[in-house]
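Note to self: user wants both folds in one dump. Writing first protein now.
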Amino acid sequence: MLHQKLFFKDLLDHSSGKSRLSQKIEAKMMPRLLQIINQDDPVDSVSISASLRLNDQLNPSIYGEIKTDLSLRCQRCLGPLEWNETIEYSIDFIRQSDTQASQENMDCISISDEGIVLLDLLEDEILTSIPMSIMHKNIELCENIDKLSMFLGSSDEKTANKNKPFSDLSEIMDKDGN
């Protein structure tokens, strides 16, 4: 059901029956997520548990949690970084033609005549939860710490050897004061 294109009527039918689903998916099945994960790690997976129900306005809604086990790339050392997160979500759906309901409820997704794929929607939830610039918590945990310290050390040497235009002036003023 996650991979199928669902229309508003399909979501309404599944929600009236209070459908539940639980599925473990390889991260390779999510094309946008595939672009940011470390593709050398074959164990990247996403576990999705979802329940469909009717909300207070008798519109379909989906809620549940997503457990991720992903290997991302550290932005500091470019080495692998394990990202295990549990993401809770709750999404209401409305028919696109129902403009009055969309104005009242800002936290909903309108479904057009083209339908929606739930897996794409849940992939959005994962992507919005990943930090923009993910790094190891401590610099000591970085994989390429030797290269990183060489880079940081060379920048310190450059600042030490940097031209100081007023250093001569302070020496001249010290000589005049004596």
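First done. Writing the second protein, which came from a different request thread.
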Amino acid sequence: MWKRHSCLRIRPAIYNDKEVFGRERDTFLLPEDITQLAGMEEIGATVVAVYMRYLHDVLKQANMCSMVGFIDPATPSLVLLIVRQREETVYFSGSSARKSCGRAGRKSVIWKTLSGTPKQPSNVECGYYVMRFMRDIIMDPSLAFEKKYAKGNQEAPYPKKQLMKSGMKWAEFVCQIIEQGNY
């Protein structure tokens, strides 16, 4: 499908309004982003950012944007943070060390590591796992991820077929934007 598609001959810039990452910005896709995803090769932050934009649109249609926020993957490290404002808790999944960012007069945030997440077999799958975690969390209306990924509830690695489902949704979203000329 991708070899024949016009996506490989253009370099679309996918617009992200302020609601997606907290600031307006374009995400520029390169042909190698598309071929890496299509070949199940290691993907970069650009592919993940476009998937976040897709998930933001899904959340917008369900009127759930206020429940989930995204951190721009163009920042130095890919991590997954889920913030529960009512409980003043931040759930953390990623390889980076946590930093305490306290401000005078503010309560300190409670950090919880999601240690029961499925473990990726190698570095190649990292971006695919991040996309799948985001999808699983958003598609669960109860947002019961803390129980699902709690310590001791270790899940088996995702099968390749499940990881590619996120890739297919990404591809459909990108093709739709390109065909509509919304880039």
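Dump finished. Worth passing along: The chain has one domain: 6-96+108-180.
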